[in-house]
Write a structure and sequence with these properties.
Elements: E1 12-13, E2 21-22, H1 23-32, H2 37-52, E3 59-63, H3 70-73, E4 90-91, E5 95-98, E6 101-104, E7 110-111, H4 116-119, E8 125-131, E9 142-147, E10 150-158, E11 161-168, E12 173-176, E13 182-190, E14 193-198, E15 201-206, E16 219-220, E17 223-225, E18 228-230, E19 237-243, H5 248-264
Parallel strand pairs: 9-17
Antiparallel strand pairs: 1-2, 3-19, 4-7, 5-6, 7-16, 8-13, 8-19, 9-10, 9-16, 10-11, 11-12, 13-14, 14-15, 17-18
C-alpha cells in the first residue's frame, strides 16, 4: 500500500443567431476544437455553475476530460493555453481516450505541470477525481510527494479503503469504501482541518496538521514520488481538478455541478 431563465450572466457572450457561451467556455472550445453541441452545453453549464457557486476563482486547474481524444482531454478549462504554465496535461503512453473520459492502463500517468509549492497554499488545497471504474487494487488517482512530510494523495479504494492526504506527513483521512465509482475530493481548509468527500458526502475528517507543500509536479493516475511515477491507476478519469480548499458548502455545491456535467454527457455513475 502506498502511503508515502433567460439572460446573460457575467462572462457570457451573445452571438447573433447563435448559441451564447460563457467567455471562458468559449476559449476552451476554441482551444480544443470541440463542436459537439451536447458537449459544449455541458461544459458551458459547468463553468456557469462553478461561477455561480463562487468557486471558479478557487480553481487552478479543471480537466473536464471531454471531447474523446488526448488533444481535447489535455486542456485546463480555467486556462486554455497550450502550455506547461497553463497546467495543460501531458499524457504518458498507455492511455485510452473516449467520450466517457481518459483511461490509464496501469502503467500510465498524466503530468499536470502544477507544482504545489509554487502554485498552491499550505493550508488551503483540494484535489479531485471522478472515477468511472470500480477496482480495489493499490492505485493512486492524484498524487505528489517530495518527502515524507510533503505529500498530497487521493488513493481511491485500496483493499476497500479510500485515503485522503493533503500537504502533510504520513497521516490520512480514511473511508471504508464499497466501490470506487463517483466523484472524490481530498480537501484541506486549515492547518488542522482535512476532510474527504465522495459524491457530495463528507465521509471523513481529521485534525492532521499541515507540514509542507510538495515541490515536484502533481500527477493524475499515479503518484509522482520525487520524480518517479508509481502506484499507477486503472480507473477511468471523467473529471479532475486542483485548487484551493473548499468549505463544506462549496464542496457540496462542487459535487452538484460536476454531477450535472456528467449527467448531461450521459456518463454519470
Amino acid at each position: 500500500m502506498s502511503h508515502y431563465g433567460f439572460g446573460f450572466g457575467i462572462g457570457q457572450v451573445k452571438k447573433a443567431g447563435a448559441v451564447s457561451y460563457d467567455t471562458d467556455a468559449q476559449a476552451f472550445f476554441t482551444a480544443t476544437g470541440i463542436t459537439d453541441t451536447t458537449q459544449k452545453s455541458a461544459v458551458n453549464q459547468l463553468v456557469l455553475d462553478l461561477k455561480s457557486y463562487n468557486i471558479w476563482t478557487k480553481m487552478k486547474a479543471v480537466y473536464p476530460m471531454v471531447g474523446g481524444s488526448s488533444t481535447t482531454h489535455k486542456y485546463n478549462l480555467v486556462n486554455s493555453a497550450d502550455s506547461d504554465a497553463a497546467f495543460r496535461i501531458s499524457f504518458s503512453t498507455g492511455w485510452t481516450h473516449s467520450s466517457t473520459g481518459a483511461t490509464p492502463n496501469g502503467s500510465a500517468y498524466a503530468d499536470t505541470f502544477l507544482t504545489p509549492s509554487t502554485s498552491l497554499s499550505l493550508n488551503s488545497t483540494h484535489v479531485s477525481y471522478y472515477s468511472r471504474v470500480n477496482s480495489n487494487a493499490t492505485e493512486i488517482e492524484v498524487g505528489v510527494a517530495s518527502s515524507s512530510t510533503a505529500a498530497t494523495i487521493l488513493e481511491i479504494r485500496t483493499t476497500g479503503v479510500t485515503y485522503y492526504r493533503v500537504n502533510s506527513a504520513v497521516a490520512y483521512v480514511t473511508y471504508t469504501d464499497s466501490n470506487s465509482l463517483g466523484f472524490y475530493v481530498a480537501n484541506r481548509t486549515a492547518s488542522n482541518v482535512i476532510n474527504g468527500w465522495k459524491n457530495g458526502t463528507k465521509v471523513g475528517t481529521a485534525t492532521t496538521l499541515s507540514t509542507s507543500l510538495p515541490s515536484v509536479k502533481l500527477y493524475l493516475a499515479a503518484l509522482n514520488n520525487s520524480g518517479n511515477a508509481q502506484n499507477y491507476s486503472t480507473k477511468q478519469c471523467a473529471f479532475a481538478s486542483i485548487g484551493d480548499g473548499l468549505t463544506d458548502t462549496e464542496a457540496a455545491n462542487f459535487n452538484t455541478a460536476v454531477q450535472a456535467f456528467q449527467t448531461t454527457l450521459s456518463r454519470n455513475v
